[in-house]
Every structure is written in C-alpha cells, then in structure tokens.
Amino acid sequence: MTTPLLTLSRGDSLAAWALSPVMATPFPGVPAPAEDRQNYKYINGFVDVGDLPCRVATWRDVATRTLALDTSWPVESLYLPGANRRVEFSQFRSTPTRLSRWCRTTISAPVDRYCSFRLSTRGGVHIWVDGELAGRFEPFTRNSTEQSVVHLPIKAAGSDIVVLTEDMAERDTNWFFELTLLDDVPLAIFLPGAPADAHLDSLKALAAEVRPAGEFTGPGDALVLQFDTTASLAVTIEAKVGSTSHAKHIMLDRTVILEAGETQVTLCRGDELPEGYHIIDLTFVVDDTSVTRQIACAVLHATEPQKRHADIAERKREALLHAARDGEMRMGTALAMLASGIEPDQRFREIIETTLTIIEERWDCADFVSVPLLWAYAKYAAQFPPDLRARTETALLTFRYWVDEPGNDVMWFWSENHALCFHVSQLMAGQLFPDGDFTASGRKGAEQVRLAAERLHLWFDAVEAEGLAEWNSSAYYPVDFIGLLALVEFAPADIAARARRVTDRIFTMMALHSLGGVPAGSMGRAYDKELRAGPLTELAPFASVAFGKGWLNNGVASLPLFAAGLYLPPPELAELAWPAPDTAITAQYTQGYAHAAHLSLFKTPAVQLSSNAGAKPGGYGHQQHVVDVLFSAHPLARSWINHPGEDDPWGSQRPSYWAGNGVLPRAAQHENVALLLYDLGANPRLDFTHAYVSQAGIEARLIDGALILRSGNGLLAYKATAPLVPVTKGPSTGREYRCYGKVTGWMALVAEGDDIDAFARKIAALDLTLDGRHLTLTGLPSGPIGLDWSNGLSVNGKAVAHPNMSIEPLIQRRRLSETMAG
Question: Which top-level group of life is the source organism from (predicted)?
Fold first, then answer.
C-alpha cells in the first residue's frame, strides 16, 4: 500500500473521507395539525415541539426500507482533517428535505481484527466494510446528538469503508457524524483520490488556515485571503459569495491562483461587494482533487458614525429612501418603495413574487415576510400589478397561521419572535378579509381576528411580566419590531397600546447597550455576525434613526416599518445611547422567563461592559452571550469571553465557536468588573475557554500575565487563573487568547484612559485566585470581590444579590470617579 494519509490513535476521530454530492429530496409527509405546545414561557435553546409530519414519515420509511451499497457516485470533494473532528454538513433548509451523502475511506490495522468506534450522529448512519453492512444507527432525532458503539472488521491489507450519512432537515439542521477510535491500536488511513503526498499537507493547511486578512474590508481595500503556510504548488481557489436575500443572487464568482510560495491572494476589491457580513464558499483545486471551505468576511464602507438630521421625521425619511434604493431583495425593500413614493421598478415584482412563493410554499420564516406584505397590501394594494394583487389575496387566504391548522411544513411557531409574527399575520389578514374563507383553518377572517387578539394578549401578558428571552439580540430585536410596529399601526387600540409600551422598553434597552452607534451587550441569542460586525446588523440603523447618529445598511426586515410608521421612540433615550463626557451609566434589570437574565451594564463614552449573572452555571449555552465589551473608537472594536461550542472557528452550530457557550459559566458584575467561573466537567470536548479580541481599532498586549487592551480612550484588562495563550495560527490568529483547564476563572475590568502602561501597572497589583470553585479578586480599592459557584457574588466578604429583579432597568448616571471599582 502507499504511504498513509494519517495514523489514527485511541481517542482520535476519523475525519478523512472522499465525498459524494449532497442528495436533497423534498420529504414533507402527510399534512396534520401540530400539537399546540405554546405556553408563552420563552427560554433560550431548542424547544421540543413534538414530531412534525416529515419526521413521522421519516421514521415510517426507515423502519421498512432496505438500503443497498452504492459506490458508483462521483467524488465531489475531500473532507480532510483540520478544524473539525466531526464530519459535518450542517445547513439550513426552509422546507422539509431529506439529506444524504456518501463518504468513503480506507483503513488498515496492524493485524486483521475488529476495532471499536464511538459513533455520534445527528441523523442516521449506515456503515459498510468491504462491501458488507457492518453498522446501522438511525435515531433521526431532531438536532439531538445520539451515540452508539460500532465494531468494524479491519484488515491489515486495508478495508474499504463506506458511510451513508442522512438527516431529515427541518430548517436549521446540525448534520454530522463522528467515528472516534476506542481501542488502543494504531490505524492507518488511506484516502482514495487524495492529492499527491508532496502536496497533501499544504492543501490541508490551506483549507484549515484560510481567513480574510484584517477584521474588515473597506471600499478602497482589497479583500485578501490569508494563510499561515506557503503553498507548495499553485492552487486554484474558486470563490462564491451569495446574497442573504431569499432570491440567493450570486454577488461574486471569482477564480484566483494562490501561487507556490505565497501566503496571500487577492480575491476582489472591497467595492465589488456591498456592505455586509458575507459568507464566502471556497473550493481549493489541485488537478482533479478539490477541498471546500466556508468562511465569512465583513465589508464595511464607513468606520465613523454618520450624524443624521436633527428631526427624527427627516431621519426616518432618509432611512426609507435608503432602503428603497439600497435594501436587499426582501419584502421590506418593496414596502419602502411604496411608502417613499419611489416608482416600483423590476425589483418590486421580483421581490413580491419571491415573497409570495415563500408564503405559498410555507417556508420557515414565512411569518417574517408575511407581515410587511400585509402592511404593503393594506396601504398600497392599488399599486400592485393586477396579477400580483390577485395572487397576494390567494396566498394570504390559504396560508397556515398557526399550528392548529393542518400542515406538513417546517415553519417554526414556538419561539418568542415567531409566535408574535404569526399572531400579527393572523390578525392583519383577518382584518383585511373579515368575510374571507381562510382555507387552512376553515375559518372566516373575523374569527381569525378574534383568535389572533386572544393569542396576542397572552403574548403581551408574558413579555410584560417576564421581559424578553432574546434580550439585546441584534438579530432578533429587528424581528420583534416586525410584529410590534405593525401592531402600533394596524391593531385595535388596546393591543396597539401594549405594543407601543413593549417597543418603548426595547428601545430603552437598545439605548442602554449602544455605544458609538453600535448596539451590543450581553444577548439572549447571538450569531457570529452580531458579535463581529455590529454596524452591519439591522439593529444598528434603528439606533442611527432613533438616536441621531450611526449607520444605515441594506437590512430591511423591519427598518422600513419603523421608517414608514407612526411609532416614535422616547426622545430622552439619545442621552443613554450617547453618554456625556465624564459620565458613567450603570443599569441592572432582568429579562426572560423566571428571571433567566440578571443583566448589569457599566458604560462610559469610551467603553461598555455588559454581563448576565443569570446564566445557569454548567448548563448548555445555546446562543447566550454572557459577557461583552464594546469600545466606541471603532465600530468593530469588541471583545468577549466564552467556552466554544464546536471545534471549527468558522462553524455554524448553536453554540458555535464564538457565539454561545458549550458550557455556561457562573458570572457576576460589580461596577466596572466582571468575574466568570467555568467548570467544564470531567470530559469536555474542548478543554479551554477563550477571549475574542477584534483587530480593528484595538491595541492588545500581554503584560505580566494579563491581557491589556486599549481602543481610543477605552481600556480593558483580562486576567485568568491559568496562563493566557495567544493563538498564532489559523482563522483566529491575533484574535484569540485561550485559558486551558477544566475549572478556571476570568476577570474583565474596564476603565477610561489613554496610558496603557499605567493601566497595566494597576492591573499587575491585582491578584486573581481560585480555590476549588471559588474565585477571588483582591487589590481593588473597593475591597476583594468573590464569585462562588454555588453562592454567587460577594464584595468585602458580604453576599451581594442582583440589585434589581424587575424588567424595568434601574438606571444611574454618575461621574466616572465615583463608579470605578478599580
């Protein structure tokens, strides 16, 4: 046999496979009503909502089928060891879809023998060894990792291993399998179709290391792909960037050559892509072999917040015109055209047709576009072309507005934002067609209105008592605004008044947690985009319009509803969003069911520290962003601490590498100091926690074991109970600092000043110690601060409870000198 690609040892995962194309088949099942588990008690994380028709049909099919081995498929690409130990193909499908993919490799043992592997999967797996079925594990549970042990007969001369991996895609689908060797035996892995040995290591490294050079690309910059190791030969790189709109336009399709000996290649100019946080699909090609990789990049055309008109009506008008001209191809742009008086162009028809397809086919998130469509139809139906007007009426009368109406779709009804948007859609559609026949429910429009009003009052009862499970979320506040702003505009007076009060509260929280025009802070749900590219989220334009300065971008999920609608935020909130010099703003409050979030904020004109002391220590942090630091000197100058939820820095799981927490910490904040205590358990998948440090506008130094950051007049110090290790290779180079250990503690302390050395000397005088699961910070003028895993925060030896258990923020303004703990 040839030289092996790699050798597998005990505890290693097998991540070297030749891959077939992905096979995707619509698989909706038989329409049926779903169990209505909506209890209006919203939590973070995946909620079990019962088995949808597509999954019932899958189990029925799996129970009776017999699968035959297929080896005739073409090799589309190779999956090579790198950033992810799992063999993962996670993706998002808006309609129920059965997914499958063939994988093939060769394994050789020292002698003929059975080898045991732990098989982890989401979906189902068949394994053939030398043409015989050797393993079958088909739980097909919804986004739940299941495990089994398989015993595979491996020959010394080499055994051909073929895996069929499958999943039933219901919207966000974390699809993977992982085979981890349990025996203490070396196994040689040979990959059919792998490139020549002399080039293989280089090709693997390129796929694992690739990243954009720099934190963002401006219009006058080049978008450069950066690598750590030099290419051993010229490598062709095919790159595609698609739009985020439902129409999925390809915005960039480029092929470049990374020359031998080079570590960089220019992909395009910054002005060849619109502003946004873009996903780049890369394919590395050598001869007949290709390896794929997906990364992301921020394109930001302005780094200074733009001052807006003094009159909010004029700011709204500016935002409406911007959305009409530059908005992405979504329903909000079509509404902006109508509301601004701009003559609808060809984009209008394309957007309406796409929106109607989403509603007619009941894609997931159809409720997010049905509300702006209803708004547009209610006010501007006469401006719709006759064929689109008729099609719109039919689509609205046949849509499924709640789980009690039969369906075989994968629309998500149960979260805070979806429940609101479905209820609003049902209300508005029933108001438009009170005598209309709604075919999915068998009801008249007037009955739909009555039911929607009942459900909306239940929703408001929950959020008025508990606050929001998706607090401060730059991704989901704009979705909440879809429903709330429509209610202010169209709902009966009692519901409209409740919507206005909740919207006021959201704008208050947004003002508190915005700095330099960028909304940030601890979040109930976060993705990489919301953390790494704050001014490119749709919440940033809301802050710009509401508070007078900031960014506009192409986000139109709900901004046109704000710009075109009646709602006005309280004018005094601008003073919270843009604090005066020598002022510190502090706030404490709770959000979420059963006080899920105990939120604390410390904010100056230069730096902002926000945290959630309510996170369940040791629990699973689906998308919870626990501690966050934002600087005002640059819109991307941001830092945070988390425990990674997956292997790959470019991964998309929930939690991901940077968004959420694989294991949640015990956290607490006292003034300008936050403490975090992590216990990762006996056998964590990743045995480190880490800090993300943006390279945009931040000077970072490791001084006397502390990580000291300065951005403008803002300062931040991190200390940990184990050494902070900078990452010097791969996608997180220069951005990641790791703290290894199963039980560790962190300190984050913010201050104002421009002397990083003087600040470092003060930090050097502080001592952070760990005794079991008790963390203590000493050396502060305010006295020692402690954090105990069981008992929480103490200051000077006295227990300190969260000072405000209300959803209404307790806000204080003080001079900086009166607030610093250290």
Answer: Bacteria
Strand order in the sheet with 688-693: 724-726, 736-740, 688-693, 638-642, 627-631, 607-612, 597-603, 583-591, 810-815
Q: In this structure, what token pair is assigned to residue 44?
A: 């973070």
Are both 390 and 535 inside the same structural domain?
yes
Residue span of the structural domain in which 98 resides: 6-190
Q: Which two tokens stand for residue 772?
A: 């079991």
702 and 632 in one domain? yes
DSSP of 487-524: HHHHS-HHHHHHHHHHHHHHHHHHHHTEETTEE-SSBS
* Residue 503, CA atoms < 13 Å, CB-side half-sphere: 30
Is residue 334 within 8 Å of residue 342, measured between CB atoms? Answer: no
Residue where one domain finishes, among candidates 190, 225, 247: 190
Condensed to tens digits (0 to 9), the pLDDT of residues 727-766 reads: 999 999 999 999 999 999 999 999 999 999 999 999 999 9
Domain co-membership, 565 together with 599: no
pLDDT per residue over 20-58, tens digit each?
999 999 999 999 998 888 899 998 777 778 899 999 999
How many structural domains are present in the chain?
Answer: 4
689 pairs with which residues across the strands?
Answer: 739
What's the full length of the chain, in residues? 822
Helices (H), 309-365: 312-326, 331-340, 346-360
- CB neighbour list of residue 387: distance below 8 Å, 6 or more residues apart: none
pTM score above 0.90:
yes
Report yes or no on 1 lying in a domain: no
- Other CB atoms within 10 A of residue 114 CB: 13
Whether 279 is covered by a domain: the verdict is yes
Residues 810 and 804 sit within 8 Å (Cβ to Cβ): yes
